[in-house]
Amino acid sequence: MEKSIKNNLLAFCIPTYNRSEILEEVLEDLISKIKDYSFFILISDNFSTDDTKVIVNKYMLKYEYIIYNQQKENLGADKNIQSTLKLFKANYYWLIGDSACLKNKSLLPILNFLTVENPDAYIINVSSRVKNLPSQLFVEREDLLLKLGWHMTQLPALIVSERIVNNNYFKRYENKSFFQFGIIFEYLGLQEFIKVYWDDNDYINKPKTKKINTWYPNKAWEYFMKNWADTVFSLPSSYSLETKIQCIKNHDKMTGIFSVKSLFYQKSAKAYSFKVFTKYKKYIKFSNSNLLICFLISIFPISVFLKKNIHSKQ
């Protein structure tokens, strides 16, 4: 079937901002894996101040199937993701991002499935985050939200159909930090029948280039306590409240982002305080965290954490 695969079957979306060094490695790797198919690479640059444009221009000379858009101002992550989806009309869009490389695995199983089965979306494992869930076809949206909703916050895990993109539920999920998750489950929630394939195979490698930190502890509570809950609760009423709440809890459970260890780390990084606790307290019941423990850590003297860090470095 390889010869019959058209180059508009799949496009690779790379929203990016100030990661030119990593982007260079990602493009070098991606082009080597997809050049035989002539798949398009869609890059939207969110007004980077580094040499992103220079790097992209370099690779546009090497590979003709790159479409590049440079924003005139920083529009935020969600709108920049949207921009990549509007650069080219493809059957499917892999939201690979600017910090993921493909493993040396054949893409044919994915391409053949997309061609023959025409699913609404195709979800892959990333860094083996999902444990003990074998590859399978999901036809029940509640089951998908419950088992994989927490994982579908990851851009590289998502291959979405043009049907999802064309339904244009963008505005509803803008500026909530989980735009990609929202538009997928909004679409699925309004369909009579769904078809989403989960592939337990891990096709993603981390770049070898020293990675720019994407974990900002000062944003943890805003993004993963408040925005995550708000996004899930915004989904259509076709998803039960019970399933929504469990999906919200599953993210914390699976990632440990609000575990005691993580809260101590946030405290030592001066990213967690009684002020933060007070601001987001009403959301704690939707996590796996204990309200009292969160409170106690929030008032614990930060000097203790700073002294511990100093001694650990000596």
From TrEMBL:
Keywords: Membrane, Transferase, Transmembrane, Transmembrane helix. The chain crosses the membrane at residues 289-306. It holds the Pfam family Glycos_transf_2. One of its GO terms (molecular function) is transferase activity. Gene3D superfamilies: Spore Coat Polysaccharide Biosynthesis Protein SpsA, Chain A. The keyword Zinc does not apply. The keyword Ribosomal protein does not apply. Residues 13-130 form the Glycosyltransferase 2-like domain. This is Glycosyltransferase involved in cell wall biosynthesis.
